[in-house]
Amino acid sequence: MRADLGLIGLGVMGRNLSLNLAHHGFTVAVYDRSSDRVGQLLQEPADGRAEIVGTGSLPELVAALKRPRKILLLIPAGPGVDQVIAALLSYLEPGDIVIDGGNSHYKETNRRGRMLEAMGLSYLGVGISGGAEGALRGPSLMVGGSRRAWELTRDLFMKIAARVEATPCCAYVGPEGAGHFVKMVHNGIEYGDMQLIGEVYLLLRELLGFSAAETGAVFREWNNGELGSYLLEISADILNKKDAATGNPIVEVIADRADQKGTGQWAAQAAFELGVSVPTINAAVGARFLSALKEERIKASEELTWVAPRYEGDPAELLPAARAALYAARICTYAQGFALLKAAAAAYRWELDGGTIAQLWRGGCIIRAKLLTGVKEAFAGEPELPNLLMAPYFKKEIEAAQSGWRRIVGLAAQQGIPVPAISSALAYFDSYRRSFLPANLVQAQRDYFGAHGYERLDRPGTFHTDWQTKEETVHSKPLQR
Question: Is pTM, for the whole model, over 0.90?
Answer without folding.
Answer: yes
